[in-house]
Design a protein that fits this description.
The chain is α+β, with helices and mostly antiparallel strands. It has 4 helices and 6 strands; from the N terminus they run ααββααββββ. Helices cover 35% and strands 21% of the residues.
Length: 147
């Protein structure tokens, strides 16, 4: 028998083991977006597209030699080569993601052995608004949805 947690508002939270809308959002969205919505008293996924202008830097990281490593492991270990490759890439990407997070970055896209990372300027936020709204954002890039 498990009790549902009591939220700060006095309401009961989700039952243990259930997946909430915010958890689903969190599994597909950049941390910055998730944290902004989770900070709401009653967090919910966005109901409309949003655009955020900000100063920052984007990095594209690709594992050098991935194809050669894949072929070599297949040759040396047969079907077990795929398992070894999976272990190697998971270990490498875990370390890489930990380093990016430690330095304030956010992984916004995975593509095989590659990552797209963004570091946002935390002090110079220019604003968030709905797509199509005009507003006082200055300069900066556009986070076309992070996916």
């Amino acid at each position: 028998f498990c009790k549902r947690p009591i939220m700060a508002s006095g309401e009961q939270g989700p039952s243990p083991g259930s997946i909430t809308a915010i958890q689903v959002l969190a599994s597909y969205a950049p941390a910055e977006l998730v944290l902004r919505h989770a900070a709401d008293r009653h967090p919910a996924p966005p109901s409309a597209p949003e655009r955020e202008d900000f100063e920052g830097a984007v990095g594209f990281v690709d594992v050098s030699g991935f194809t050669a490593l894949s072929e070599r492991l297949q040759k040396d270990f047969g079907n077990k080569g795929s398992e070894k490759l999976n272990q190697y890439i998971n270990s490498y990407l875990t370390r890489l993601i930990d380093g990016v997070s430690h330095h304030g970055g956010d992984v916004i896209k995975f593509a095989g052995d590659a990552l797209q990372v963004v570091w946002r300027e935390r002090g110079g936020r220019t604003g968030t608004r709905g797509v199509g709204e005009s507003g006082g954002g200055s300069g900066g890039g556009s986070n076309g949805g992070g996916g």
